[in-house]
Amino acid sequence: MAISKTAVIYEGAMVSEHAVINDYVVIYPGVVIEDGAEVMDHAVIGRLPKSASTSKRKVQKGYKKTVIGKNSVISPGAVIYTDVVIGAGTLVGDNASIREGCRIGDGCIIARNVSVNYNTMVGDSTKIMDNTHITGNMVIEDHVFISVQVATTNDNLIGKGEYSDEREKGPYIKRGATIGAAANLLPAVMVGENALVGAGSVVTKDVPDGKVVMGIPAKIIRNVED
User: Fold this and answer.
1) DSSP string of the chain?
2) What is the CA radius of gyration of the chain?
3) ω into residue 171 within 30 of 0, thus cis?
4) What does the pLDDT profile of the chain (226 residues) look like in tens digits?
5) Spatial contact of 168 and 155, defined as CB atoms under 8 Å apart
């Protein structure tokens, strides 16, 4: 175990043997850092969410279990909230943010400046590249590739209604799908298995399995296998 003298580790956190905690890391109660994991400079693990007076969604109170899996790396400046589970061998990039209630699988990349909002599930071996926003209440299955600057949303009322978990649903991206750079996926759309969304597309409707869609709004162009 290697823990920097400048790190702050609160009572109730557990750092396993062979984990590495670098300078100025903050680890809150309920956090478990598993064997071989490394938390790099200025990262924050297990943070409680805070809401402004104008926020419509109520945030959870109290620390819950937060897990950084075996041999995972949390890069400098990343912020992982409480009640997050990150699997084994996953990389969280510089200044990434993962909100409460998220589950990230094994062997994933959550790249630099990616934001993953509340209650989102990410499967194994999925890659989400730089400056992408993953909205709340979203599901991404295994072996998905999401390119840079992709935007996803979960509220067709654009904040004008009261918050509801049942109504505010992000996109569902199925296994093996690919999302091109700067694509925009609107609330509750389904991107099918092994489908491909072209760069810059705006996805307003479900994408069938194995299809390529492009454009604004996105339309089916051909089969992926072609």
Assistant:
1) -EE-TT-EE-TT-EE-TT-EE-TT-EE-TTEEE-TT-EE-TT-EEEEPP---TT--SPPP-S---EEE-TT-EE-TT-EEESS-EE-TT-EE-TT-EE-TT-EE-TT-EE-TT-EE-TT-EE-TT-EE-TT-EE-SS-EE-TT-EE-TT-EE---TTTT-S---TTT----EE-TT-EE-TT-EE-TT-EEPTT-EE-TT-EE-S-B-TTEEEETTTTEEEEETT-
2) 18
3) no
4) 699 999 999 999 999 989 999 999 999 999 999 999 999 999 999 999 987 665 666 777 799 999 999 999 999 999 999 999 999 999 999 999 999 999 999 999 999 999 999 999 999 999 999 999 999 999 999 999 999 999 999 987 777 676 666 678 999 999 999 999 999 999 999 999 999 999 999 999 999 999 999 999 999 999 999 8
5) yes
User: What distance separates the 2 farthest-apart alpha carbons in the chain?
Assistant: 57
Tokens representing 5?
Answer: 């003298």
Cα 12 to Cα 36, 46, 113, 116, distances in angstroms = 20, 11, 29, 25
Single-letter amino acid code for the residue at 44: V
